[in-house]
Specification:
The protein is 76% helix and 0% strand. It has one domain: MFS general substrate transporter like domains (Growth Hormone, Chain: A, Up-down Bundle), CATH 1.20.1250.20. By secondary structure, it is mainly alpha-helical. One of its GO terms (molecular function) is transmembrane transporter activity. It is found in: Cell membrane. It comes from Isoptericola sediminis. It is a multi-pass membrane protein. Pfam families: MFS_1.
Length: 442
């Protein structure tokens, strides 16, 4: 009896480019949408759950679930890049989905806030493994010519799913209560994501190795010190502190997620305090990530034409202005405008920062550089939860929003002063010669 060869273990020619790898690219976009959906199940419901069912009145205590999520995700982002370089991208992706499976069940059954904290530790680990890996895999597939577009698609899928799921859970919570209905979506997302990743996703490490053989240094000599054989410690140091573009991207990413942590944890409470229904809070909670998600389809591609730096600076400034409007407003319509502006500003920044890291990092250690960048970026959730919670407890929620708005504007100024343009105007690499085998895992 003949057996059918699993699709991930069939050798295929390695070619770089979006068109050449379209089926796998589209599949990975769908997988990352499911990753985003796992995060979106919490955006509307969990802050309200902490206040209404578990009686958390202090803002700092209520934001602990975001802090532990960010801490776990940031740490795992770093090791995910190292593991992806060492063992391959696909095993790391599958491991992330396995960790995600119990998360919605813990949220449904949680008798105490400690269970919610445990669920968010697992969610952070899962997001660090799955989202980091889909980022690296798409960069692997498309090569240098369409890096911004690839990141636009990846982040658009993830954050559009965050927005749609936040909206859906808001309506489910209003109709059926805060538990269990909203979290049933998470069970479905985890099951489908694990199935697709196990049965259909292919390994892409061979694409990165092919690109490394064709890597062309910058003509201005900026990257001459960033050779192929950097140690893990050197990659961390260059990405975090020494290399101007990489370190500028890392601090901007941290501040970007600092204000996202504020939006996630305190916006629903601010809106509820103004008398908005759970359904309307769900609309606002969904509007910001939905605009953020869809907008990246445009901004990622624009960064391939206009360059990275100007979009990052403009996006940080727009986010700061939007946060100021949130602090000033007191009705649904004004907050909806602010949510759209905040989403648009974040869309300008999010895929562009990832593309800039991909521009600078050598293909031999790019996955590790992405991991370090995402370590700093998702550390922003921790900083945001602690800072926003402390300021809100001392001075009120609106004061916390003003504080984060000021930090966001300052971060944009740092990028304007310190970062150089990372995009090189070069042609796409030639296709791989016929018959080059693709690395695979059985």
């Amino acid at each position: 009896m003949s057996t059918r060869t699993p699709p991930w273990s069939t050798p295929r020619p390695v070619r770089l480019g979006l068109r050449e790898n379209a089926p796998q690219f589209v599949l990975l976009v769908a997988v990352n949408a499911l990753v985003g959906g796992m995060l979106g199940q919490e955006r509307t419901v969990l802050p309200l759950l902490g206040e209404q069912e578990f009686g958390l009145r202090a803002y700092t205590a209520g934001l602990t679930f975001i802090a532990v999520f960010g801490l776990a995700k940031a740490a795992v982002n770093y090791v995910a890049g190292t593991w992806a370089d060492r063992w391959g991208r696909r095993p790391v992706l599958i491991a992330g989905w396995l960790v995600a499976l119990p998360v919605p069940l813990l949220l449904i059954w949680a008798p105490t806030w400690g269970w919610v904290i445990a669920a968010n530790v697992l969610l952070g680990v899962s997001q660090g493994l799955t989202w980091s890996t889909t980022v690296v895999m798409k960069i692997d597939l498309v090569g240098p010519a369409r890096r911004g577009l690839a990141m636009g698609f990846n982040e658009a899928a993830g954050y559009a799913a965050v927005g749609v799921t936040a909206l859906a859970t808001g309506y489910l919570a209003e109709a059926y209560g805060l538990r269990p209905a909203p979290f049933l979506l998470g069970i479905a997302f985890a099951a489908v994501g694990l199935g697709l990743s196990t049965l259909l996703v292919r390994e892409t490490r061979g694409h990165a190795r092919l690109e490394a053989t064709r890597h062309v240094p910058r003509s201005d000599g900026r990257h001459d010190h960033l050779h192929a054989d950097l140690t893990d410690r050197q990659v961390f140091t260059q990405t975090s502190f020494r290399e101007r573009a990489l370190s500028s991207a890392s601090q901007a990413g941290l501040v970007n997620n600092l204000n996202d942590g504020l939006a996630w944890g305190l916006f629903p409470i601010l809106f509820a305090g103004a008398g908005l229904s759970v359904g309307r809070i769900g609309v606002l909670a969904a509007l910001y990530p939905a605009v953020w998600g869809v907008g990246q389809l445009v901004t990622g591609a624009l960064s391939d034409r206009w360059g990275r730096k100007r979009l990052i600076v403009a996006g940080m400034v727009l986010q700061a202005l939007a946060l100021g409007l949130v602090a000033l407003a007191d009705d649904f319509s004004a907050w909806a405008v602010a949510a759209v502006l905040l989403g648009a500003g974040t869309a300008m920044v999010y895929p562009t920062l990832l593309a800039a890291v991909g521009d600078v990092a050598h293909p031999a250690w790019r996955a590790r550089a992405v991991g370090v960048y995402r370590l700093w970026r998702d550390g922003g959730f921790v900083a945001g939860a602690l800072l926003a919670g402390a300021v809100a407890d001392l001075l009120g929620v609106r004061a916390a929003v003003w504080t984060v708005a000021a930090l966001t504007a300052a971060s944009g100024l740092v990028v304007a002063v310190r970062m150089y343009e990372t995009l090189q105007r070069t042609g796409a690499p030639d296709p791989a010669p016929p018959g080059t085998p693709e690395e695979h895992h059985g």
